[in-house]
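Re: How this chain folds, sequence and tokenised backbone to follow
Notation: Tokens come from a learned vocabulary of local backbone shapes, not from coordinates.
Start of record: The labelled sequence and token lines come straight after this line.
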Amino acid sequence: MLAWLKAAHIATLCIWCAGLLVLPGLFLGRVQALPPRELKRLWHFTWIGYRVVMSPAAVLAIATGTGLIFGYAVFEPWLYLKLAVVGAMVALHMSYGLALARLAEPEKHFPRLAGLAMLGGATLLILAVLLLVLGKPPLDAGALPDWMRQPGSGRTLLQSSLESMRPI
């Protein structure tokens, strides 16, 4: 059973990572003005890629990865660092959705530097995950912050953050 879960995780992770690498190139198609028909086709293709292919793959990659963590009972410090990098990949994924929503307006253009930054960020995050998973570096658990080592302390951190954001 775990072999199938691992195969599903690797397959969906490959699709998600491919999307993280391909979408900035599609966004860069909007650096210049395009004829309305090409513009609509490019946006529709990008939207389908993000919504129908990449986002479900991301959800399934995270779900199967979570299953693998508990299936293999891997609770090592390198894993917590890897999960933080995956969280950054999720944030990058969400920024793609925001960029795509902005590009729904025909007069909007996409800055070349933003596309290159997205591509560079995706590349670095994917490489970081690969290095952590394949290398499993021996990290000292004491090097991690307290909230990462104590169950339930993330909730306390979130509550204190929300309280500090309340208007006076």
